[in-house]
Amino acid sequence: MPANLSSRSPSSTLPPGFVSARVLDRQALTPQVTAFRLRLDTQGIPFHTTAGSHVEVLLDLGAGDEVRHYSVCAADGPEITIAVLREEAGRGGSRHLHESVHPGTELRVRGPRNTFPYRASGPAYFVAGGIGITPFLTMIAEADAAGIDWQLLYLGKHRELMAYTAGLAAHGDRVTLWDSASRGRADVAGALRALPHETTIYACGPESLQHALREAAAATGHVIVIEDFDAGKTADTSGTADTAGPSDAPLPGSDSAVSADGRPSLPFTVELADGSEIDVAADESILDALNQAGFRALSSCKRGTCGTCETPILEGTADHRDSVLSAEERDANETMMICVSRACGSRITLDL
Length: 352
Ligand code: FES
Prior knowledge:
CATH topology of the largest domain: Elongation Factor Tu (Ef-tu), domain 3
Number of domains: 3
CATH architecture of the largest domain: Beta Barrel
Distance between the termini: 14 Å
Largest sheet: 7 strands, antiparallel
Order of helices and strands: EEEEEEHEEHEHEHHEHEEEHEHEE
Strand order of the largest sheet: 4-3-7-1-2-6-5
Number of helices: 8
CATH class of the largest domain: Mainly Beta
Number of strands: 17
Bound molecules: FE2/S2 (inorganic) cluster
Radius of gyration: 21 Å
Structural class: alpha/beta
Shape: globular
């Protein structure tokens, strides 16, 4: 849970950690991308973002509340801007924001979190695919402020569908805008080979782009940091999809059917803080079992990558199957991601 908003719930009607956020205005950046400027009612609690931060937005999509993650494109105290790509084939969050959220709308927001931290300590090469440009706006501002050398390779299919290009063009030859419709596929491996060895690569985009960059960085020896805070980033064989990046694209299947050491999934019982018990079958997650029982637990990616469903453990040991917690956090056994992680043994008690 975000440290600076977790000390109290701002309203009895808001889930823990969430605050009310009024939409101040919205602006169409491209035919598919709209920016929303929000003012968070933090009730006096400090709200500090860092380069690469994102917020969680809780949306009522009809079948219950769901969380979506959006990078903070700009922040001025409790006023933040997020940019949302409309994904017609997505899970509904972006369509809801585009169609139903207007100036004056009250949203529910939690954060900030930062799973993509930028360390302004040396030359940086930013690689953005499509809507994956959003976390780099704050990173570029921080790099500029620190006087650090940086370059941006911004990939998209069509120039007119790439958000924030006008502002980025002001940075001159630090920025390469690459639209594959007119220029063909970008040679990201070649781009990395041309970089000084001490350059750190930061990337946010579709999985195909991430894969290509990981391979290229392994060959060149560059340090690479990749944004992976949500599931369902749209894979695109060109690696230049305009639909890539933080999104509510359809979910891929979970790959957590067995534990990291190959342990199969077995049934167990979850005890809640009030003493009630919920049985979890071998083929379902704790999250699914809770929802089946009518308990509305928050979730987003449902594959252990975003951290939204992180839940405190009161008793018992978790079989961690997420990619959020560090090895130290797993050993501490204080929290678990209930969308994928399970119990070691026949029961576990959670602070729910
Ligand atoms: S819902 Fe994303 S980690 Fe569980």
